[in-house]
Write a structure and sequence with these properties.
Elements: E1 4-8, H1 14-26, E2 34-38, H2 63-72, H3 80-91, H4 104-126, E3 129-132, E4 140-144, H5 152-162, E5 167-171, E6 176-179, E7 184-187, H6 202-212, H7 220-226, H8 238-257, E8 306-310, H9 315-320, H10 327-339, E9 347-350, E10 357-360, E11 363-366, H11 371-388, E12 392-396, H12 398-405, H13 411-414, E13 419-420, E14 426-430, H14 433-438, H15 442-464, H16 480-484
Parallel strand pairs: 1-2, 4-5, 8-9, 8-12, 12-14
Antiparallel strand pairs: 3-4, 5-6, 6-7, 10-11, 13-14
Helix pairs in contact: 1-3, 2-4, 3-4, 10-15
Length: about 500
């Protein structure tokens, strides 16, 4: 029997394997006649030279098989190449083979794929980056990880999406991945001592981890299942796990014995703010400060009659440190102009002071703040309201309404009415300008724009103490994007609007 030798470029060379397997299967080469090798492993093998591939049209591998092979080929099992070729070869005669879970080859391939998927999940969960100082250059971050399988190339793009603006490297014994902000490259393996042991942010991370550890929900066996002990040696928080487990029962008993009225109102991981009127830039009450560029304070006269509260800063606001300067802010400016309100006479702020976002390539997409984020920022918002003492507050969006009123207030059901907060201040709820920018149909835009202008006018009338007449007629049929197109302001995709 003539044997065909295939030499792959690496242990995870899916493209090379598929190209060779598809031609061999098309030529009818039996699985037992094919020998699979990896180039970096052939130095000790005699005669491990690749055979010419048959000059035939390759078979088309079904997508379900390609998806299975994408994971299974990254497994550490040396027989994975032969197993998957055997499956591809058999698929030519039995197209529905992959649906037969009782088949030995199908079952084995699915087990390999499942193991690789689990290893990838552990990598995304347990990689810890440490900062490396580089004189005169932007900081770089390095992580060490020891995967069970050949998952580095498959998983590295996840970290690129998540940390697109950072320069980083992930080192493993078998290879390394490097992201310079524009390109992802791969290199040789490394040793543990090539990665740093700690950095200036580690103490902060350990403090955060200790504070979010909930002794009442501790299940040691489940925790070890999700965070196997073998990963602990490379996790900075591992040093805390044993004492936290040891003290869990005592901490839980203390929690039970503490009267509810004296417990902190904020959720786990959100430290109380001792002085709400202090330095907002130093706020560490919730984790949002770690990724945001800066906290964005309110802006406007401290005796303003009208205060407008939005949800949170957007991308532009985060970079410039000013509220409502992005697309949503420009739409608000247009609405203020139409109603006849001078922006310099109102106080503008947000319920949450740091930008909550999800990196997506080179972009940062808005994510809705959680209740805990709103609670952590509540002292700052309350301090602003107490200082300004506005005659009326316009809350834009459900998050702002909840922050101001202290209760749920759906926009559609609440707008158009005068509500009151716990201190009996008058509150008007309306749409957030970013929501208007995301609308798609002309009718939706027309109705929402008219409602937004009406709510803004109502709040202004209350602030002025008498009905107010706009200096120019408003056109409820006018779509805001139509009015702003000439100024270069356009609609935004869902999730990206500046708040």
């Amino acid at each position: 029997m003539t044997r065909h030798s295939v030499v792959l470029g690496g242990p995870d060379d899916l493209g090379g394997w598929l190209a060779a397997a598809a031609r061999l299967a098309a030529a009818g080469i039996a699985p037992e006649a094919v020998e699979w090798n990896v180039r970096e492993e052939t130095a000790s093998l005699f005669g491990a030279e690749p055979s010419p591939l048959p000059a035939v049209e390759p078979v088309a591998a079904p997508q379900a098989f390609r998806d299975l092979a994408r994971l299974a080929l990254c497994h550490g099992d040396r027989e994975r190449f032969a197993l998957l070729y055997r499956l591809l070869f058999r698929l030519q005669a039995t197209p529905g083979l992959l649906s037969n879970r009782a088949d030995g080859d199908v079952s084995r391939a699915q087990i390999l794929a499942k193991n690789v998927a689990r290893d990838r999940h552990k990598m995304t969960a347990f990689v810890r980056f440490r900062e490396v100082a580089r004189e005169g250059e932007v900081p770089a971050f390095v992580a060490w990880f020891e995967p069970e399988h050949h998952i580095l190339r498959l998983t590295a793009p996840f970290f690129v999406r998540r940390f697109a603006s950072q320069v980083f490297s992930i080192l493993t014994p078998a290879g390394s991945a490097h992201w310079d902000g524009t390109a992802l490259t791969f290199g040789r393996g490394a040793a543990r001592h090539d990665a740093p042991d700690g950095d200036r942010l580690e103490a902060l991370w350990l403090t955060y981890y200790a504070n979010i550890f909930n002794p009442a929900r501790l299940k040691v066996d489940m925790m070890k299942s999700e965070m196997p002990v073998k990963y602990w040696k490379n996790l900075p928080e591992a040093a805390l796990i044993t004492p936290l487990i040891r003290d869990a029962r005592a901490r839980m008993q203390t929690m039970i014995a503490t009267p509810a009225a004296t417990r902190p109102a904020r959720g786990p991981g959100y430290a109380p703010i001792a002085e709400p009127a202090g330095d907002l830039s130093a706020c560490r009450a919730c984790p949002l400060h770690a990724m945001a560029t800066q906290a964005v304070p309110g802006s406007g006269p401290d005796d303003a009659r009208l205060m407008i509260v939005g949800e949170q800063p957007g991308d532009r606001e985060d970079l410039e440190g000013k509220p409502f300067v992005g697309p949503a802010g420009q739409l608000l400016d247009e609405a203020l102009r139409r109603v006849g309100i001078d922006r310099n006479t109102i106080y503008l702020t947000n319920a949450v002071k740091h930008f909550h976002f999800e990196p997506r390539g080179k972009h940062r997409l808005h994510k809705t703040p959680t209740r805990a984020h709103v609670q952590a920022c509540s002292p700052w918002l309350r301090a602003e309201i107490t200082t300004v003492e506005p005659d009326v507050i316009l809350a834009m969006g459900a998050t702002a309404a909840r922050a101001v009123l202290g209760r749920e207030a759906p926009v559609r059901a609440s707008r158009g009415h005068v509500l009151h907060d716990a201190e009996h201040r008058r509150v008007v709820v309306t749409w957030h300008p970013a929501a208007l920018l995301r609308l798609t149909t002309r009718e939706e835009k027309r109705v929402a724009w008219a409602e937004f202008l009406a709510d803004l006018r109502l709040a202004h009338e209350i602030a002025e103490g008498s009905p107010f007449t706009s200096p120019e007629p408003t056109n409820p049929d006018g779509h805001p994007a139509d009015a702003l197109a000439a100024r270069g302001i356009s609609g935004l995709p869902a999730g990206s609007a500046g708040r």
